[in-house]
Amino acid sequence: MIPTKASFTDKKYLVTLFFVTSLFMLWGIAITMADVLNKHFQHVLSLSRSQSAFVQFAVFGAYAVMGIPAGLFMKRYGYKNGVLLGLSLFAAGAFLFVPAAYTSSFAFFGLALFILGCGLSTLETVAHPFVAALGDQRTSDQRINFAQSFNAVGAMLGPLIGSYFLLRNNTPGSTDLTSVRILYLVIGGVIVLIAISFAMVKVKDTTDPHAVLADEAAVNVDVAPDKKLFEHKHFVWAVIAQFFNVAAQAGTWAFFINYGHEKMGFSDEKAGNYMVLFMGLMLLGRFTGTFLMRVIAPNKLLAAFALWNVLMCIIVAQGLGWPSYVALLMINFFFSIMFPTIFSLGIKNLGAHTQQASSFISMGVVGGAFFPFIMGRMADHFGVAHAYYAPIACYLVIFFFGARFYKVKH
């Protein structure tokens, strides 16, 4: 039988793909807004860099708590209801910023960020397998990277909005949290409107292509149906790789503004504005990676980008001025394809295990809860430049996953 050419998606899925892709942008805004909050709280709440890393701990720690419940909810109630649950938690967390700002309590902000993070975890758990299910699995890498490109758009908007509303008017000794309260009140309202709009959209029932063989030439079914989930080694390694991937991401992003301020002499607002370029390079990397995957195997591209980031981290840690700052910017270009590619390689050929696997890979994001503390302590004791030695270990793990441990075994 002559293999059929796999299309990017089917016409019947176009509307659904549009709405689900928009979710990637939403949590991109929220995640990078947290990095701006990290720096803002250092000012208005008089926190050290290691203390302010609790912002990332609250957001990414939520992934460890919500990953499995979100997967179970999705499995029982479907993709659409999973999305609505995620948006509801997202909005609730944003609205809690209002009383947190009135009390000036960092612990209260931590609770708000945790609930918001539960919403983000739910959206990520649902959206990745949802996008993967909207067509042939042979093109799932392309679809997920395409959707993640809009996550990068959101990641650019987050620091742009945050820098304008939070860092632009930072004054030494100020404890005013009015801008935080108003900003997150507006964000909560926008998310509520999006949730209402999505609830009114009729999403056609889809048959999960990971669970049903629609084409004998496709690789969209479990190649070892008798295996339990954790007996699939490529899945286990994907969880490990995702843990270290998000650890490196969270640490790098959390102290990006600090690096610009301390090593380049930028104001906080200017350093925050450079974060827009930083995220723009991630967007460029995702589009470039999606194109390159047509001629280079996704795992090989992943391994190559991981090695490039090892080199970038070494240059950043030297504190050489503009050469190191350019290397810091380029980290995001090479980071770009890592999350979606690890995700798509990890859920390959898992059949009925796909949704559960998605939960566990999403839980790997908890790496981002702990690593900023490590980098924060290093920055406090050795300087922010030397803290960038730490992510090298993370990128080596990703390299080995892409080079060897990604393989699906029968």
Beta-strand percentage range: under 5%
Q: Based on helices, strands and strand pairing, what is the structural class?
A: mainly alpha
Number of helices: 16
The mean pLDDT is: 83
* CATH class descriptor name: Mainly Alpha
Distance between the termini: 22 Å
- Classified in CATH, the superfamily is MFS general substrate transporter like domains
Number of domains: 1
Q: Write down the CATH topology.
A: Growth Hormone, Chain: A
CATH architecture: Up-down Bundle
What do you see in this structure?
There is one protein chain. Helices cover 73% and strands 0% of the residues. The chain starts with 13 loop residues before the first helix and ends in a 5-residue tail after the last helix. The protein has a single domain (11-210, 217-405), classed as MFS general substrate transporter like domains (Growth Hormone, Chain: A), CATH 1.20.1250. The longest helix has 42 residues, at 54-95. The model is unreliable at 209-220 (pLDDT under 50). It has helices spanning 14-44, 49-52, 54-95, 97-103, 106-132, 140-167, 178-200, 233-254, 256-263, 268-292, 298-317, 322-335, 338-346, 354-363, 367-382, 391-405. It contains 16 helices and no strands. By secondary structure, it is mainly α.
